[in-house]
Amino acid sequence: VGFYDPIKNQTYLNVPAILDFIQKGAQPTETVYDILKRAEVFKEFGFKQTKFNFN
Q: What per-residue confidence (pLDDT) applies to 49?
């Protein structure tokens, strides 16, 4: 649903697919959560659940 290349500082996110997976109960890793937060995915789409279980 996307990629992040730290060397080129390039990010591609398929936001509709990401939000669909999260709404179905998917839990992002801490790293993925940080990338989504930095891209303001949750803020831009008014997504309410921004607290996840990182175990």
A: 58
DSSP the chain: -EEEETTTTEEEE-HHHHHHHHHTT----HHHHHHHHHTTHHHHTT---------
Q: Distance between CA atoms of 45 and 41, rounded to whole angstroms? A: 6
The rounded distance, in Å, linking the Cα atoms of 24 and 22 is 5
Distance CA 22, CA 8 (A): 27
Q: The whole model's pTM is what?
A: 0.74
Q: Which residues pair with 10 in a beta bridge?
A: 5
Is the pLDDT at 28 greater than 80? The verdict is yes
